[in-house]
Amino acid sequence: MNDTAAPITNGMPMLGLGTWQNTDPVECRTAVREALETGYRHVDTAQAYDNEHEVGEGIAAADVAREDVFLATKLWTSNLAYDDVLATTDESLDRLGVDHLDLLYVHWPTGEYDPEETLAAFDELHGGQIDRVGVSNFEPRQLEEAIDVLDAPVFANQIELHPLLPQEELRAVCAEHDVDVVAYSPLARGAVFDVPLLQELADDYDTSPAGVSLAWLRAKGVTAIPKATSTAHIRDNWASLSVDLDDADVARIDALEREDRRVDPDWAPWN
């Protein structure tokens, strides 16, 4: 097991394992187990990923206590009516093989999402089956509405965020309301490897463009959950914890001024 540990913000490790598209049962179980035994303590999944059962098996197989793992999942858009939130959260817990979640997200503010009804169910779960309430893909308007409706605090907003989509305005709104930011697709689905500046900095810091991108996010106070299935990628992402960018290089990445969104469905709230 690696002695390195990810920084923790508000009880959440700032580097986690993303599991989107990891639907091969053996590969998923193995990736989760290997990540935990490498040192990861944050695992992120979702009902829509169709791998909660395998994620749970990977956690159970790892030589790491459940109480040491920060586990998050997300409710899909068809499961956001009040009764469906309660019922399908129990189903997710059963698939994961756990009795509570460290963080439960509304995956998208669309479909059956109704702030009053959906978030009332999250309040019902809070302090019992779930420790923290999260939202995902919420723009400032949806985020502030959720904060107003919920009794529980909004702990985190999970959004696409990387050097090619810095989301300054949304991050500022999250900071104003003490909402943690969690970055999905933090490597821009691999596009960071093709950016000359990130390649140059990777050479300077003896890492990869992935390592530079993850270090940049950490410098911004953002938690990243890069997807990884191979041992090499799991370890390469973990090695980013040893990369500390100086302020000048953080500023150089900020100056890229790109708006390259990789996840952009027609029904997204920004469209």
Describe this structure in words.
The protein is α/β, with parallel strands linked by helices and 271 residues long. The protein contains ten helices and ten strands. Strands 3-4-5-6-7-8-9-10 form an eight-stranded parallel sheet, covered by helices on one side. A two-stranded antiparallel sheet has the order 1-2. α1 (25-38) packs across α2 (52-61), α3 crosses α4 and α7 (196-204) packs across α8.
- Average the pLDDT over all residues and give the rounded result: 97
**Helix coverage percent:** 25-40%
Low-confidence parts lasting 5 or more residues at pLDDT below 50? none
How many β strands by DSSP?
Answer: 10
Morphology: globular
Written as H for each helix and E for each strand, in order along the chain, the element string is EEEHEHEHEHEHEHEHHEHH
Oligomer: single chain
Major sheet characteristics? 8 strands, parallel
Task: Please identify the structural class as seen in this structure.
Answer: alpha/beta
Termini distance? 44 Å
Order the strands across the largest sheet as they lie in space: 3-4-5-6-7-8-9-10
Number of helices: 10
Radius of gyration: 18 Å
Kindly estimate the percentage of residues that lie in beta strands according to DSSP.
Answer: 5-15%
